[in-house]
Amino acid sequence: MRKVKLLFLAGLLFAVSHVMIAKQTTHTFTIANGNFLYDGKPTQIHSGEMHYARIPAPYWRHRLQMMKAMGLNTVTTYVFWNHHETSPGKWDWTSGNHNLREFIKTAGQEGLMVILRPGPYCCAEWEFGGYPWWLAKAKGLVIRTDNKPFLDSCRVYINQLASQVRDLQVTKGGPVVMVQAENEFGSYVAQRKDIPLEVHKKYSAQIRQQLLDAGFDIPMFTSDGSWLFKGGTIEGALPTANGEDNVENLKKVVNEYHGGVGPYMVAEFYPGWLSHWAEPFPKVTTESVVKQTKKYLDNGINFNYYMVYGGTNFGFTSGANYGNATNIQPDLTSYDYDAPISEAGWATDKYLAIRDLMMKTVKYKVPAVPARIPVIAVPQIKFDKTADLFTMVESVKAVENDTPLTFEDLDQGHGYVLYRRHFNQPIGGMMKVKGLADYAVVYVNGEKVGELNKVFDKDSIEINVPFNGILDILVENMGRINYGARIVQSLKGITQPVTIEGNEITGNWEMYKLPMDKMPDMTKLSEGYKAGMPVLYHGSFTLDKVGDTFLDMEKWGKGIVFVNGINLGRYWKVGPQQTLYLPGCFLKKGKNEVVVFEQLNDDKKTELAGVTTPVLDKLVK
Fold this sequence. Notes:
This protein is α+β, with helices and mostly antiparallel strands.
């Protein structure tokens, strides 16, 4: 009996000690008297943004250590809804870089506070701004407004998110100190003047309430251009400014919407900028970034570098902007962003200059810069097999319809669709595909005729289909719009009737779905090649050690590359990106497999080259 009592007492002491430890490690983070208060003491937020979804999970810790060694004390990240709800009702919070909990815990272990930006709308040059693609096809659902089906969907997402991170808030002993409600909503209010302001405000207030209902009990904030606070601010959330370099103006506008007091924060301070295919790669000088950083530090302004580290839009995750009512500006696969930390995790001159300034200014210890992840040169990758995509299509069951169906109608989110039409009589003239989204290669009887694409706003081409001829249009989704009023126009494929010489072509359309969501199994495809026709290349290479590297795509046309089953993303000869980043954690000692899907196939390739430095700024016109 005495032994049982002793065991009971020991267990009780163990439990009490753990409660005491938990109490000791629990902190507070509040907004009061114009300050951020950590455990009641005024605290400055020196944050950098990086998105765990754009980083291989094995590299999370390295990238977090890099930003801390730059002198920062906080990491900010978007949470992309569509990164976690991978198909309707199917959620992934645990595999690879979907494991948000692990990312947050790792940040906490590295001594960083965490700020979450869960949207539900994120922008971020990410596919559909973070929304799941199927929302675009849901009947009666209108995104980003006071629409019950949409808000019901948001609630499911927010509750899912809260189930993963609720206990990681600072109020529960975790590192998460703030959460954003909506995102840059003031911009959308300005772009959608067709919607009354009171309707906009009712919607954004409901997003905040859903976060509260889900158990977020930490400070909330909004972020907008300083001239857009009227539409973007939400009662009960701290207004912060994006891209505001004028300290006095920042204080003025925050005071106007926050009871005459701070804290004052620039939630997006741009040390670089976003980049599109077929446009020059934008750069921001080190001198200007350091100068602005010093201004913030000298005036007690809290800030978040967007981005401190950009990462990569692997697979089909990149989004698109637009420049007019009809074109698109697809975002690059690389999200390097000209950020202080490069896409491969290297310290740039910009990084070192900021670090030097931070070390002279902040009172906390700034650690040493972590070593680079090793870089290797992969051997020339020799191709051992080619397969004609049109042969592969023969094993795909066609969907038939009188008119072309969109990707969404076909229940396909990403990749490619081949639209085919057989003609019993000859037809020729100007073919117009007004509803093209986004890029297409046109073929007649197995011969390439030309390209159409909404990047250059080209939707028409002269064709000549003979008697008993076949017209093929291979359409690629280059990423749904992530910013602006046209985000509500995000259907992909062929979205309007196809006409030839003004005559609508109806009846007997066949659609072949090619989602490319997995690396094609070349063992199941017969050998085949035809110049000008879309082709799959297979090759392999052997390594005795692994490390980061880059694939040289400059001499290729347009397509995607898989390595060991992982889609590295898109390449396109127009640039400015001419290499694809291949993280060493995607490689293995011994044999590595490569499959390239080349859409244009202007000349046959025999090998693929690797390089040790990226090329992101070579535009080809």
